[in-house]
Amino acid sequence: MRRSIWTIRRTMIAVVLVVSLALAAAFNYLWMPRITTVMVEAQSSEVERQLDVIIDALLPFLLSRQYGAIHETLTSIKARNVNWVDVRLVDANGRQLYPLQQVDLSPSPQTIRLQREISMRGSSAGRIEAVVDISAHLARLAEETERLGRAATAAILLLMTLVTVTIDRMVIHRVKLLGDAADQMAQGNFTAKVPDSRADEVGHLTDSFSAMRQQIAQQTSALKAARQEAEAALQAKSQFLARMSHEIRTPLNGVIPVAALLSEADMDPVHKQQVEIIKESGKALLSIVDDILDLSKFEEGRLELQKEPVSIKGLIVGVVRILSISAEKKGLKLRAEIAGDLHNASIVGDEDRLRQVLINLAGNAIKFTQNGSVTIKADPGKVGQMNCVTFSVCDTGIGIAVEDHDRIFERFEQAEGGRNRRFGGSGLGLAISQSLIEAHGSQIDVTSTPGQGSTFSFSLVGQILQDTKLVQPLKQSECAPVLDSFSGARALIVDDNATNRFVAKAIMKRMGFEVDLAENGFEAVQTVGQTSYDVVLMDMHMPQMDGLEATRRIRAMDGPQKGVRIIALSASVLSEDLRKCENAGMDGFVAKPLSAMDLRAALTV
Asked: Which of 165, 478, 527, 531 is deepest in the core (most CB within 10 A)?
């Protein structure tokens, strides 16, 4: 989390400085003019009082027309008041009596000019005017005001500083200690220093934080103990799974080879494809068993690798052959790109383990890619002075966030974590693949951008051998012949599993049905609405729309198709499932795995 440079402490200091400067400016630019105005008014009142005294003294002289006495009196007054710039006396006729010469009495910014009428018995006897210089008073006032302003600013600054220090000690410093303790707690340290408890708001916060921290520490300790117990239980489970997987592997070793022998025998294409399904299903089960065994071997540290030449082209094209159906089902392009120098080359390694890794990486790429392509590549390269072959699986899928790049290689982890896990998976594949590649002396690297796809790659260092192995092209499946029984009837098989569809189709075609296929309930509803069928075999559990909802929608249609015979297919045979099928409007129920006898019995009831 990015923190601002404007901490509370820095903000308080800035506020103190701004407030102090603002008060100082307000004092200088607001109070100084006001004080000057008050002083000028006071000086004007004093001069007016003195003029009244002078008028009382001059009035007898004016009445007796003793102009010499008037001149001496005003000259004396002017001499005693050194700040009086000038004085002028005018009689009732406007004649200037003092001084004898005309003078300019225009005031300056630092002088005040006052005049008073001289009246006697209600009539004017003249007027007197005075110009007083107050510059000395203003200068002294400015000096004293400046001194007072500095003192006031210092006092304000000191007061604000004391307030800031008090707030810092009582609040900011203690809150910072709490924040540091919280950061340490996030890193697993539950002993960081916290503020002393006091009877105030921060003290209450400290007590609450300490109680919370203690609870979290206890819970963390309990979780660690529980995790240790879970890991011990997992270890015991791994050992158990290893033993059980070995027991399951034993009969598979008989199923797969026999299926391989049958596939080489002279038989029609349909039978050959059925044998291939047996063989591939056995291999799929064997792959699961191998993952379980590998996991137990990794935990016990006894995994052994075979070191033999592996055809690079044969390895990659074989993986493409195995995963081609899965890619075609999603409408993806599954490609192999092998550098020219590597088409007839081999590298030393464990072929089965490398195939297992590439199948896992490419299978994940297909699973997490909705449209576009998946490419398996092999390129020559160098690691230091050693030659190497870099295998890469590139896709145009959903991508992986950078923070998840390491986590996806942990056991039971997926990039999508605790969300809806809509892509499924156990979370073991990448962990096992990484361990297998590490056993080959390398590691799997990932580069990815969310929304733009991912690339998983690893490099095998060693001598690159040239050979002449050729890879056989992919075989295309053919449809089984139609038998006579139920000849002319039309059936729709609805199942999201390709193998289940194939088995059901083979059985129905042997019985004489013309067969159409659908992968989910949506397709089933649309197909039944467009084509007339005699029977619909409906799987109960499918993505997007299950068989129960699809049956309800078919029964709600207008027209004869609403009465089509619908037989439920399910691996679950609970009485509750049978009631659900009956309530949805289905006419029969057949349990998986399917058999021709069970289907015939359901169709003839």
From this structure: 527
Decide if 475 is inside a domain: no
Give the model's confidence band at 455: pLDDT under 50 very low, under 70 low, under 90 confident, else very high: very high
CB count, 10 Å around CB of 437? 22
Structure tokens at 347: 């590298």
CATH number at residue 596: 3.40.50.2300
> Cβ(313)–Cβ(338) under 8 Å?
yes
What per-residue string of b and e applies to 218-228 under the rule 16 or more CB within 10 Å gives b?
eeeeeeeeeee
Angle at 297 between CA 294 and CA 303, to 5 degrees: 90
- Let me know if residue 43 belongs to a domain: yes
Residue 408 forms part of a structural domain: yes
Q: Domain boundary at 272, 303, 334, which?
A: 303
Cis peptide, bond prior to residue 593, ω within 30 of zero: yes
* pLDDT confidence of residue 484: 39
Structure tokens at 239: 């050992």
Angle between helices 135-167 and 32-64 (to 10 degrees): 160
Hey, how many other C-beta atoms are within 10 angstroms of the C-beta on 68? 8
Work out the number of other CB atoms within 10 angstroms of the CB of residue 261: 11
- Which strands sit side by side in the sheet containing 565-570, from one edge to the other? 514-518, 490-494, 535-539, 565-570, 588-591
Q: What is the pLDDT of residues 324-352, one digit of tens each?
A: 888 888 899 999 999 888 888 898 888 87
Q: Is residue 391 part of a domain?
A: yes
pLDDT for the residue numbered 517 = 94
* Residue 118: C-alpha distances to residues 54, 128, 555 (Å): 10, 7, 123
Residue 414 has pLDDT above 90, yes or no: no
The CATH number that applies at residue 457 is 3.30.565.10
Domain of 385 in residue numbering reads as 310-466
pLDDT in tens, 278-323: 776 776 676 666 666 666 666 655 567 778 888 898 899 888 888 8
Place of tokens 């290893």: 242
